[in-house]
Amino acid sequence: MPRIPLPHTRRARVLTLAAVVVVLAAAGLFWVSSGRQSAPVATQDAVLDVPAAPGSAARVHLDTTLYLPSRTPAPAILLAHGFGADKTSVADQAQELTRSGFVVLTYSARGFGHSSGQISLNDPDFEVADASRLIDYLGTRPEVRQDGPDDPRVGVTGASYGGALALMVAGADRRVDAIAPVITYNDLAQSLVPNGVFKRNWAALLFSAGASVSAGSSGGNPALGNDAPEPGQETTGSGSGGAGGGGSSTAGAAAGAPAQAPPDQPAAGGGCGRFTAEICQAYVELATTGAASPRTLALLHRLSPDSVTGNIKVPTLLVQGENDTLFGLDQAEANARQISAAGGRVQQIWYAGGHDGGKPGPQLRGKIGDWLRYQLTAEGTDPVSGFPYDVQGTLRASGTPSVRVVEASDATPKPESLLLAGNEQTIMNPPGGVPAAVSGLPGLNWLAGSSRVTGLFGVDPPGQTARFTSAPLGSQVLVAGAPSLRLRVSGSAPEAVLFVKFYDVSPDRNLSLPANQVMPVRVALPPGGGAVEVPVTLAGIVRPVESGHMVQIAVTTTDQGYATPTAPASYRVSLVGDLTVPTMPGHAVGNGWPVGDLLGIAGFLAAALAVAVAGGIRRRRAHGVDPALTEVPLVIDGLTKAYPGGLTAVKQLSFRVEPGQVLGLLGPNGAGKTTTLRMLMGLITPTAGEIRVFGHRVRPGAPVLSRIGSFVEGSGFLPHLSGETNLLMYWEATGRPREKARLAEALEIAGLGDAIHRKVRTYSQGMRQRLAIAQAMLGLPELLVLDEPTNGLDPPQIHQMREVLRRYAATGRTVLVSSHLLAEVEQTCTHVVVMHRGALVAAGEVADIAAAGGEATFRVDSPGTAADTLRTFTGVSNVDIEGPLVHADLDGMPRADAVAALVRAGVAVEQAGPRRRLEDAFLRLVGEDG
Question: Which long-range contacts (CB under 8 A, 24 or more apart) does 752-755 make?
């Protein structure tokens, strides 16, 4: 039997083990996924004609697919899709429900996919009437269980736009037997114009999805709640994907209609795509004025479920996402309250997802299907007991937050009071409403997860924010619902638009904005600067605020996601009384043991472990410290940066910077200086070679970069804030403690004096440059890197900048300056590196480089006679007189011979030596001296 060779080195054994783990993990994942594959269900495609409008002879064609279970007759499910999508986006969910025993009818709503017509946003006369016609169709199908003539046993479900359709048709058609709306709205006006403040980011995303839709579109925008694949959270209650797949078995098209029909109605003009003119006009009004007229408010009300919830008597399951800045938890609570008041039976589930956090995962989708089966067949027991809601933790496994399910007896909150500290504060609305606070990006807030709000998206500009903070909590407070408070507001304008946020503050002062939720408030202010008290109900959240954490309420004047006033104004804001937070005590419930999922997770973790092992080896090699260089600020070795197309910006560059040096990086335009500095700062990755800072190899995001202060990409100060505030805001954005900023020392070196307290818009260009240098000096980094720091400065300002750099170097630190001003480099720097066409052409002390040319200088008693004498020698050129000095390029003639010739001519030579001028040496080195 042949002997199998085994790896001998430790590295080879680790890599072999990693490969084995990856193979085993892949096999496990394949086993799990293959076990879930199911045969496709039978389908029938049909195009159904419905009236284009009430009483109209014109027709709209609806593209439909009927999914048939193995046993019929069976209850039916009308499955609606999300906005911007079509029937194909819910195909996987339709197959899941069909395998559960339902007849499922999917369709593309008018204006989407292959259906004709225009988008009216679930208008009762159009989309809702279409749904009733689809129920008529189900009443003609022998596969559907019937409760009577033209009365099929039917439930309606869908997400977002489709969820609102479920509510609207249940309020209009008494044949509907149960509904399960998911992540949807109650009132479009409150969703898009909350408290009278236009939610422009989400509205623009919704409108663009409808305006750009075209015939034959499929999939959709995951931010809008449809079932297209999306990056999101696959947890107990959320995730993407679904069982089923593959092709479908087409049993035939109903009534001989073709499988697809092209749109037969032209798009609305004016860039409105397939929206109706009425919807387009309302959006244009909102987008241009930032406010809704009574006509638009009446339209939004007619298109909203709250116009019909008083008619809904059927069992209703409301599934709402806790991570949803489009349709928040308040929308589900409003639907539940109104339906309950009308006598309907309502149950709710809140899950860790939403438009910003992912669709319901397979387990939650299965629970929705089980609930519909119970309501439509009365078989078994109700799978939804009490009020279950997800509590999302902060620990992540493979990027996914941990989630536990808490079941409360009902959805009635138990309020708790928290005392917040903070005096009355003045906040400003900046001219033009910019810069604006950033709390999130619609559809992308899932990226932020539980990260610190000052990291990925969020920032509250200083001067625009009032903060009120609690003491550290003695025990965990599980907030579940909408906190409330009272504010006292006065100001210089007739009304104030404010944005109120609930922050979770960790012991190290990191801020987290749960679910990126913001509540806008429009406050009418009395004339004469009087104050008014206003109650504020914040956005609903589910957030466990841990022991030792603090709660902070922030009130800002701007938010990038909303239309805000552009006129400058100031307001005084204070908190009245305590903050009330809702809690819903309950008990944790288990989710069983999904063996397949656990095996899949185990396989994934094993694969991740293998990748981590291999990555760790690479990182150790990439970021390993060279012990011999730990005291050397900078070593560049063989650095190369090449771009596609044959351009090589930097070629085999090597040099070294020692502690205490001020090194000038010189070169003509295009020499590769800025590219080198950007590689040094980790902004771009070298093609070859390496950079080491204090022995650590530089890569994007390398920790050693925190030891470098830089001014490479240009300054970006906020003009309406003071220089000091700009610096503090920049430092706080790095996440480092304020006491480590060494602000006073940086300011002393920069020499701005009292001007640091003035607004930056009053600064001269030189002061702005010095402020930029002070920003780079914050924390007194050991290596300071500056790209053209004297750009745009006049001679006195350049002199001041030279003194700034000298003072910084005098602290024992190292400075690297890229500049094209040779005279300044000569006077400021101790060493110089000259680059040309991406390559190094010279490096050394400034004096040595400047003296490397062939020119000589003579101090004489008769400059005219000396110049005439030197011009008589062959090869001597560039003879010029500067006072008692005569300069000449001797072209290889020994300087002693030139002195002897001058003496023979009767000229007294007091001094002779090389002409030390960096400019001449530079031009000779780069080959541009003519």
Answer: 752/723, 755/723
Q: Give me the residues paired with residue 484 across strands.
A: 537, 580
Same CATH fold, 627-844 and 47-244+264-384? yes
For residue 625, what is the DSSP state?
B
CA distance 324 to 304: 18
Q: What are phi and psi of 578, to 5 degrees?
A: -95, 165
* pTM (two decimals): 0.61
Which tokens sit at 394? 């902060």
Q: Is the pLDDT of residue 396 over 60?
A: no
- CATH superfamily to which 47-244+264-384 belongs: Alpha/Beta hydrolase fold, catalytic domain (3.40.50.1820)
Q: pLDDT for 660-678, tens place per residue?
A: 888 888 888 888 888 898 8
CA angle centred on 336, ends 330 and 342, rounded to 5°:
140
Q: In the structure encoding, which two tokens stand for residue 569, read together?
A: 């104004």
**Structure token digits, residue 402:** 């941990």
Q: How far apart are CA 704 and CA 902, in angstroms?
A: 59
Rounded CA-CA distance 828/802 in Å is 6
**DSSP character for 2?**
P
The C-alpha atoms of residue 372 and residue 158 are separated, in whole angstroms, by 12
Q: Using CA atoms, how far apart are residues 267 and 280, in angstroms rounded to an integer?
A: 11
Q: Which of 430-434, 441-445, 520-524 has the weakest average pLDDT?
A: 441-445
CA distance 34 to 259: 31
Sheet containing strand 648-657, edge to edge, reads: 648-657, 634-642, 688-693, 696-697
Question: How many CB atoms within 10 Å of residue 240?
Answer: 20
Phi-psi region of 522 (alpha: psi -120 to 50; beta: other; left: phi over 0): beta
Number of Cβ atoms within 10 Å of the Cβ of 851: 16
Domain 627-844 has CATH 1.10.260.40: no
CA separation for the pair 250, 217 (Å, rounded): 21
pLDDT in tens, 248-263: 333 333 333 333 333 3
Q: Which CATH number fits domain 414-586: 1.10.490.10, 2.60.120.260, 2.60.40.1120, 3.30.450.20?
A: 2.60.120.260
DSSP of 21-82: HHHHHHHHHHHHHHHH--PPPEEEEEEEEEESSTT-S-EEEEEEEEEE-SS-SB-EEEEEPP
Exposure on the CB side of residue 868, measured as CA atoms within 13 A: 6
- What single letter denotes the amino acid at residue 706? S
Show the DSSP H helices in 154-195 as ranges: 161-172, 188-192
Cβ atoms of residues 694 and 632 within 8 Å: yes
Amino acid at 333: E
- Spatial separation of the C-alpha atoms in residues 554 and 268, rounded to whole Å: 42
Residue 274 burial (10 A CB sphere; 0-12, 13-18, 19+): buried
**CB contact set of 881 (below 8 Å; sequence gap of 6+):** 863, 864, 867, 887
Please give the Cα distance from 611 to 195 (Å, whole number): 49
Q: End-to-end alpha-carbon separation of the chain, Å?
A: 78
> Over 50: is that where the pLDDT of 694 sits?
yes
Contact 704, 696 (CB under 8 A): yes
814: helix, coil or strand? strand
Calpha distance 25→834 (Å, rounded) = 53
- Report whether the peptide linkage leading into residue 795 is cis, meaning its omega lies within 30 degrees of zero: no
Could you tell me the residue ranges of all domains in the chain? 1-37+600-623, 47-244+264-384, 414-586, 627-844, 854-914
Cβ(539)–Cβ(517) below 8 Å: yes
Sole residue written with tokens 């999300």: 82
Tell me which DSSP letter residue 695 carries.
Answer: T
854-914 CATH choice from 3.60.20.10, 3.30.70.100, 3.60.10.10, 3.40.50.1820 = 3.30.70.100
Torsion sign over Cα 897, 903, 906, 912: positive
